Amino acid sequence: MNGDLFDAVLLDRDGTLIEDVPYNGDPEKVRPMPGAREALDRMRAAGLRLAVVTNQSGLAKGLFTAAQMRAVNARVEELLGPFDTWQICPHDDGDGCGCRKPAPGMVHAAAAALGTRPARCVMVGDIGRDMTAALAAGATGFLVPTPVTRPEEVAAAPHVARDLTTAVDEILRRQAAVRPVTPRRAGTVLVVRSDSAGDVLVTGPAIRAVAANADRVVLLCGPRGRAAAGLLPGVDELIDWPLPWIDGDPSPVDPDDMRRLTDRLAAVGADEAVVFTSFHQSALPLALLLRMAGVARISAISDDYPGSLLDVRHRVPVGVPEPERALSLAAAAGFGLPAGDDPTLRVPAARPTVVPSGEPYVVVHPGASVPARACPPQRCAEIVAAIAASGYRVVVTGGPAETALTSRVAAAGGTDLGGRTDLAGLAGVIAGARCVVVGNTGPAHLAAAVGTPVVSLFAPTVPFGQWAPYRVPLVRLGDATAACRDSRATRCPVPEHPCLTAGVDPAEVVAAVRLLTTGSDS
Ligand SMILES: [Zn+2]
Fold it and tell me: What's the rounded Cα separation, in Å, for the pair 284 and 269?
């Protein structure tokens, strides 16, 4: 395993590699999609292995024979070049197999056949089933819509490209972006990630990339991210300081406080600094303080003109997953993850002490750091009742300020752990769970960091592909087309909060839990 993001690309056949001719058994009717051969050859040349992952229910329906399908597939390879593995589901809906997309079985099988894991694979397809299968296995998903792709499938997809060529451009660009052009070693590096727990956790892989190439790493975080920062591997020292240009509920700027912060930063004795931000935050005010503190080399993402504040001014297109966005800044600064360190989120998970061991359970976490991203309490209670009725034990988690919420939600049929864990303890509880039902908030990233599958009740206020739990098995629920989409609202601007109220059916949550825990949706 190298320090790259991806080892393999898995491609749907009909509607993605070749034109969709329903239930085609005739090799003469095989027509490649525009640009397919060239796009595939570029991926082969870049060292990516390729798989075809295709539902062929025409076999179960008796609409073509296995020999006819083999002839069609041979024609596909004749026109498009060789694939390293073919994964074909011969079943139909209702057969209850684990391979027919949206089940993730063929994504797992393709990864295994290629000697890798789903998290190191990209799946490219033209419909929602392809994306669901990819995400449920923990793979990256790229939707390339055709005229038959439904608008809600486009809205829900993690990444969308207008054609196969564009998808491959983006896959290769993302792969290259986390590779340092000029790898360096450094002495003491000050890394910065202010903001809340989730923001800190998604920066974890980038901080590990710096730590692997530096003698010492000092992390400047904010009070709301302090507990998460304390869990990150690779950090030698923490400085906790609120930054008024980052905090969502900021205090006025106090000149004395800024002077004390500058002195504290100078005392670190850093040779350089890497300032991580999310796409709507500015690194420049801190860069100015770092310059005043004597830091000689500063790297940050900035669309705004930085003048002499930055030595490495990095820019990233919108829609890139936050962990990769941060990794690409680390790479621009000269730091890459070493071979063997997969770019997943990672924190240590203590054995949970507040949950009896041995009995499988599902965590429901009803709270969110931002109200617009929380599923309403009543709907969360219905979800708890539905999961409990389906035979799973349910554990309801929340912070010390959320105990009224967790006790109300848990009363529907779960064990209330609200206020009984710190963040490290919560990591342990989540690590012991079969899966977690949670909105777009810190514990979703905590689940990714301990490798527990996530049913993501995702309000579309921010892009899903950017903020989804990273490289962990996942089902997205909630109305991706709701009017709050891309509003970045902290309070839902739409009456009744439809994206996570009408948009989340408890029966769908149960089906998602089943898909993530058994690999089958029936
Ligand atoms: Zn099947």
Answer: 20
The arrangement of strands across the sheet holding 237-240 comes to: 237-240, 214-221, 186-193, 272-275, 297-301, 312-314
Residue pair 487/363 in contact (Cβ under 8 Å)? The answer is no
pLDDT in tens, 484-514: 888 888 888 888 788 888 889 999 999 999 9
What is the DSSP secondary-structure string of 404-464? Answer: HHHHHHHTTTSEE-TTS--HHHHHHHHHTSSEEEEESSHHHHHHHHHT--EEEE--TTS-H
CB 336 within 8 A of CB 329: no
What is the rounded CA–CA span in Å between residue 175 and residue 94? 38
Instruction: Give the three-class secondary structure for 477.
Output: strand
Kindly give the distance from the C-alpha atom of residue 20 to the centroid of ligand 1, in angstroms, as a whole number.
Answer: 20
Residue 103 alpha carbon to ligand 1 centre in Å: 9
Task: Report how far apart, in Å, the C-alpha atoms of 281 and of each of 19, 44, 110, 302 are.
Answer: 43, 38, 39, 9
CB 348, CB 472: distance < 8 Å: no
If you measure from the C-alpha of residue 22 to the centroid of ligand 1, how many angstroms do you get, rounded to a whole number?
Answer: 18
Helix (H) or strand (E) holding 199: helix 197-202
Ligand 1: centre distance to CA 59 (Å): 11
Q: Is 236 a catalytic residue?
A: no
From ligand 1's centre to the CA of 259, what distance in Å? 64
User: For the chain, percent helix, then strand, then coil, each to nearest 5?
Assistant: 40, 15, 45
Asked about 163 being catalytic, the answer comes back as no
Q: What is the pTM of this model?
A: 0.95
> What SS3 state is found at 476?
strand
According to the model, what pLDDT value does residue 201 have?
Answer: 97
* Predicted local distance difference test score (pLDDT) of residue 318: 87
The predicted structure's pLDDT at residue 191: 98
Q: In the Cβ-directed half-sphere of 452, how many Cα atoms lie within 13 Å?
A: 30
Measured between alpha carbons, how far is 94 from 358 in angstroms, rounded to an integer?
32
Exposed (0-12), middle (13-18) or buried (19+): which is 217, by Cβ within 10 Å? buried
Contacts of 117 (CB under 8 A, 6+ apart): 111, 138
Q: What is the mean pLDDT of the chain?
A: 94
Residue 508: Cβ within 10 Å count:
16
From the candidates 4, 7, 12, 521, give the one annotated as an active-site residue: 12
- Interval between CA 94 and ligand 1 midpoint (Å): 10
One of 14, 195, 416, 521 is an active-site residue; which one?
A: 14
Distance 4 CA to ligand 1 centre (A): 31
